[in-house]
């Protein structure tokens, strides 16, 4: 199912952009998109996106297809609208039309091949040889786009050793670990999940010396699109980056801690929902227990995670007093705690949606990590 990088809603943005391809008029003609009737008022983009989300949530694929066609007609440059149209048409078993819409999405810059291959909405077209050619085109475009991205150069940080690697199929990364980290006495791993719009590596890596003194290493990503997160990027992190980091002497990457801010925190929650057994804990800054939004655009809180593995993953949350997300945490906290979820929420006075790890919060983080710092089961 295609998803927005930051919110987890049905709308999906591409991992890249392309200026090649059909002009707007030819594009609309090729896809059979209708023009507005005389006197018809176009719906606002945010209204269309709410309709699309609601239609997919309700499995009303004819309504989803109609809204995606209208959205593409309003802004034919964006690849997420034809991608979502392909998903709706595939669900309707309109195979040729779905492939045509997916072709337009890839031509317009959709380059998340992993998303295409994993998306359950596209299951009806996955056996079509045309689909695999489109997925290969998307994968090539994604690789080319990543190679063109700026590389986040390291700064010298006294008191830690730095290891940089670029694993095949994974995300390029950097590890900051203490000089006393050895194979016999490895440091546990914290994985930084950046917000949308920038890596913030320089900010979070300032914590590396303090973390190293407590037996923790810090992994940051150094070359990717930092506008947000996609499910494919999270998969590359788990399937290729972390196994590669396991080969670095002095690191224990089993059940790492995820540290996420804003969009990175939302991705941490999504990864925890999929594989709670894979993580030792989550540290969330300005991220919220959101399942998405309803048709009116109101936030829908996550349901209580009741499976046993969730009860073994402590969550440490920092949220601003003036942040609307504080109300969400307040609403879900009693039910989550009653279900056995080890949840700690710190509300930071006078703050809104912001980076909250000042000295008092870092002290709380260190105390929390000390409680996690115990031998890992084999």
In the predicted model, the low-confidence regions spanning at least 5 consecutive residues are: 1-40
**Tally of strands:** 10
Count of distinct structural domains: 2
CATH architecture of the largest domain: 3-Layer(aba) Sandwich
Task: Please name the CATH topology of the largest domain.
Answer: Rossmann fold
Across the major sheet, the strand order is 1-2-4-3-5-6-9-10
Number of helices: 13
Can you identify the CATH class of the largest domain? Alpha Beta
Shape: globular
Assembly type of the chains comes to single chain
Rg, Å, rounded: 22 Å
Give the proportion of residues in helices: 25-40%
In CATH terms, the superfamily of the largest domain is Alpha/Beta hydrolase fold, catalytic domain
The N- and C-terminal alpha carbons lie at a distance of: 35 Å
The whole-number mean of residue pLDDT values reads 86
Largest sheet: 8 strands, mixed
- What percent strand? 15-25%
N to C succession of SSEs:
HHHHHHHEEEHHEHEHEEEEHEH
């Amino acid at each position: 199912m295609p998803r927005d990088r930051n919110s987890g809603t049905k709308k999906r943005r591409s991992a890249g952009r392309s200026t090649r391809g059909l002009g707007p008029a030819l594009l609309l003609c090729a896809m059979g998109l209708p023009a507005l009737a005389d006197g018809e008022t176009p719906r606002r983009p945010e209204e269309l996106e709410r309709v699309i989300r609601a239609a997919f949530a309700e499995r009303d694929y004819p309504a989803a297809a109609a809204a995606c066609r209208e959205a593409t007609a309003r802004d034919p440059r964006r690849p997420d609208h034809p991608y979502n149209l392909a998903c709706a048409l595939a669900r309707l078993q309109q195979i040729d039309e779905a492939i045509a819409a997916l072709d337009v999405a890839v031509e317009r810059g959709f380059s998340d091949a992993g998303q295409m291959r994993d998306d359950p909405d596209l299951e009806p077209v996955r056996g079509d040889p045309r689909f695999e050619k489109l997925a290969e085109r998307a994968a090539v475009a994604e690789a080319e786009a990543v190679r063109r991205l700026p590389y986040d150069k390291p700064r010298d940080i006294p008191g830690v050793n730095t290891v940089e690697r670029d694993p095949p199929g994974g995300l390029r990364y950097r590890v900051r670990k203490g000089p006393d980290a050895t194979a016999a006495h490895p440091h546990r791993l914290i994985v930084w999940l950046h917000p949308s719009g920038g890596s913030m590596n320089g900010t979070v890596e300032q914590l590396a010396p303090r973390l190293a003194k407590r037996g923790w290493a810090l992994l940051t990503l150094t070359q990717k699109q930092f506008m947000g997160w996609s499910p494919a990027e999270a998969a590359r992190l788990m399937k290729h980056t972390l196994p590669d980091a396991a080969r670095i002497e002095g690191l224990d990457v089993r059940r790492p801690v995820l540290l996420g801010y804003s969009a990175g925190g939302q991705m941490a929650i999504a990864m925890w929902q999929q594989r709670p057994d894979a993580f030792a804990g989550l540290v969330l800054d300005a991220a919220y227990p959101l399942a998405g939004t309803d048709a009116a655009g109101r936030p829908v809180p996550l349901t209580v995670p009741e499976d046993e593995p969730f009860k073994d993953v402590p969550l440490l949350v920092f949220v601003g007093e003036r942040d609307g997300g504080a109300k969400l945490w307040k609403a879900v906290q009693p039910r989550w705690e009653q279900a056995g979820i080890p949840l700690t929420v710190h509300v930071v006075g006078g703050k809104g949606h912001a980076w909250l790890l000042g000295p008092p919060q870092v002290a709380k983080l260190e105390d929390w990590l000390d409680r996690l710092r115990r031998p890992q089961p084999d």
